[in-house]
Each structure stands twice: as structure tokens, then as C-alpha cells.
Design brief:
Number of strands: 0
Radius of gyration: 18 Å
Largest sheet: none
Strand content: under 5%
Distance between the termini: 25 Å
Shape: elongated
Helix content: over 70%
Number of helices: 10
Structural class: mainly alpha
Order of helices and strands: HHHHHHHHHH
């Protein structure tokens, strides 16, 4: 499992630019917002957490179609299905490797982009914390979509269409927790715990559903 993790980590970084492409896309989304809404610093500060979360969500969708594509192309997907190690565990490790290579850099870059939106220290810290907790759920949900379209030659757009509606609850509670921390630290815990619960829920459901979809695709 350790060898699989580092193998997938290298593949995720090399394929299509990996983390760099995601961060640049994240930067592009956040950077163009001030040009659209104007130079009102109070408005930018108010909408900043939501914009950063939306940018991170869209950037995290990049490359989800490649989660199982390399194994499909070189034939190792059949070996994954036949190995003694449970397929659910294999999918879970691949999800962690993909999150480390693509979503973790977005979490690290979020404080810098928060400054672009004139966010204060509390808002930046809350946004970074909620992204750290909530972004794995996006990967687990994306694993299901990637497994469903793995047999399709160009399934990247289809993965985004399938995954985006399912990630809306993660976005809602991530943004809600961030705004709660800014307005009053006391209400921060309930939406944050719900966000954590969503991540844990999809950590169980996502790999299991992806493994089932991979087996059905092979059949």
C-alpha cells in the first residue's frame, strides 16, 4: 500500500502538470473576481471565503478522470481487481495519493489567495482549516465518478458533471463554518463538525462505491 501511494503520488504530479495546474487554475479563478465585482474591499472581504471555496472546489475537479485512467491504459486495472488486497483499500490509498498531490497544494495556497480577497486572519485561518477537512470528501466523491467513466475515452467533463452536484453539501457547510468563525466563533463548531462528518461518511461510501463501479466496468 505504501508503494502504491507513492506511485500514484508521482503519477498525479506528472500527469498534466499535477498540483501546479490546479494551483494556477485556483489562482486564476480567485484573481479575476476583483475585476468582476470592482475594487470594493468590504465586498471582497465579505465574499472572499465563498470565492476561495468555490475556486478550490473547481480546481479539485481537475484531473479526477485520471484517478484510474493510468491503470486502465496499461492494463494494471485487471491486476488490481484480481489481487488479494481488498479493492476498497486500494481505492482508498489511491484517493489519499490523489488528494495529497492535487488538493493539499490548494489548501496550502489558500492563505495567499485569501489576501487577494482582503480577508482577515480569522477568515483565512478558518478557510484553510475547512478546506483541509472538507477537500478529502471531494476526492472520495470524485473517485466514484472516475470509476464510472473509466472505460470512456474522454470522460473528464462527464466526471465533473456527475461529481459537482454531490459536492454541494460540502461547499455549503465549508463556507458556513468559515463565515461562522468570522462573525462569531461560538457557532463555528456545528457546521465544522457536519463538514467533518461528511468527509468521514464519503471516506466510507466513496471507495466502496468506486470499487463496485470498477468491478462492474471490468465485467
Amino acid at each position: 500500500m505504501t508503494a502504491l501511494f507513492f506511485r500514484d503520488l508521482k503519477l498525479s504530479i506528472r500527469a498534466g502538470g499535477g498540483a501546479l495546474i490546479g494551483v494556477l487554475f485556483f489562482l486564476t479563478i480567485v484573481a479575476v473576481i476583483p475585476f468582476g465585482v470592482g475594487p470594493d474591499l468590504k465586498l471582497l472581504s465579505r465574499i472572499g471565503p465563498a470565492i476561495v471555496w468555490i475556486g478550490a472546489l473547481l480546481a479539485a475537479l481537475l484531473g479526477l478522470d485520471r484517478l484510474f485512467q493510468a491503470e486502465r491504459d496499461d492494463g494494471s486495472l485487471d491486476l488490481m481487481l484480481m489481487q488479494e488486497t481488498p479493492l476498497v483499500l486500494t481505492v482508498l490509498v489511491k484517493c489519499f495519493a490523489h488528494w495529497t498531490a492535487t488538493s493539499l497544494p490548494l489548501v496550502i495556497a489558500s492563505p495567499l489567495l485569501g489576501l487577494f480577497m482582503n480577508m482577515d486572519e480569522t477568515a483565512i485561518g478558518a478557510t484553510m482549516l475547512t478546506l483541509l477537512v472538507g477537500s478529502p470528501a471531494i476526492t472520495f466523491i470524485g473517485a466514484v465518478g472516475a470509476a464510472v467513466v473509466v472505460a470512456l475515452p474522454r470522460g473528464g467533463l462527464l466526471v465533473s458533471i456527475l461529481v459537482l452536484p454531490l459536492t454541494i453539501p460540502v461547499l455549503i457547510f465549508g463556507v458556513s463554518a468559515t463565515y461562522a468563525a468570522v462573525e462569531d466563533p461560538a457557532p463555528f463548531l456545528p457546521p465544522f463538525l457536519i463538514l467533518l462528518a461528511l468527509t468521514l461518511f464519503f471516506a466510507v461510501i466513496g471507495p466502496a462505491a468506486a470499487a463496485l463501479a470498477l468491478r462492474n466496468t471490468a465485467d
